[in-house]
Amino acid sequence: MIPHSRPIFGAPFSDAVQSVMASGHTASGAQATLLEQTVIQHIGCHDAVAVDSGTSALMLAIRALSMQMTIKHIGIPAYACASLLFAVRAAGCTPVCMDCKHDLRLDADKAWDIANKLDAVILVHPFGMVEPLVKETWPCPVIEDIAQAAGATLDSKPVGSFGDIAIVSFYATKPWGGAYGGMVMGEQKVCTQVRAMSNPDASDFTQTYVGHHQLSDIHASLALTRLACYQQDMSQRKQHMQWLDERLPQNYVQSITNRENGNAFRYIIRTHHDAETCIQHLRQHGIAACKPVQQPLNLATDGLCDGAYQAWKDCVSLPLLPTMSHNEHIQYEQGLKACLQY
Ligand SMILES: Cc1ncc(COP(=O)(O)O)c(C=O)c1O
User: Fold this and answer.
1) Among 169, 174, 184, which residue has the most ligand 1 atoms within 8 Å of its CB, making it the best to mutate?
2) Same domain (yes/no): 250, 195
3) In a domain, 106, yes or no
4) Quick one: average pLDDT of 50-62?
5) Which residue has the higher pLDDT, 189 or 203?
6) How many domains would you assign to the chain?
7) Is the pTM here over 0.90, yes or no?
């Protein structure tokens, strides 16, 4: 089976882990600090805190904001990873879903209709594309989620530099992936609050929430190694994207305009309302396609989001790999031909 993702973990990754082991210090330490400094340089933010996951990063960012103002209702994209919904709930807030357009980015008109009712908003750059609404002035604080789009740019500025706070994930298959981990990036005040919530041993008993959220040096060293080579991964995925463009019938080709300045994280096609059957066929031909999003998040709230529902019925994420063998190329091409009938 051609896997949906296959991050390359070569010798530099095992060397990095070995050197942490040899140092005798595996918990959060020098590597986590170096990862924070590296990301600060990439994004150009004031401060950054390495934590145990992207989901924790979101939850802690919301909790830190809540210390500065009342945060109850948080806007999240309906067509996004379930982590957003659970992070909002874990911070004691209520998610409010925002619908997407045909190109899977937010429907701006619908978003502005509800913006005034939100206390904060999480804007995701979806599937490696850039969400232009991060450039706009929102009536509430913006948490910019670059988990899937790290390395992408908008108006020559790195994504992650637009929101009041930004978060990223270092989960294995993500563009900056190591194994597990996440980071909160932003002003010093927010980051100090996130640090205080991440280490029970250094906590003060007046705090309402503290969890053990620090990132281990082993995980940090893996993420650091990925950061050193993610641009090469990105250009290899871009080549694979082009290979797919040349092999897919026109009506299945992912819209090229949406990729501008993106990081080629996912290759998503729209079927004719039958993603499920298409995925089954592709899998029977050895191609591990999957749904880009397991369920539209508005199913968990009372919001109606037709665009997200339609995307869920239509969209299929095809394997997009930095490298493939000759035989895999042949298998992939034959599988696409058989399943998409051309
Ligand atoms: C857009 C987005 N944000 C946040 C997360 C959560 O990251 P993690 O898996 O590190 O908890 C994910 C994970 O899939 C994601 O896709």
Assistant:
1) 169
2) no
3) yes
4) 98
5) 189
6) 2
7) yes
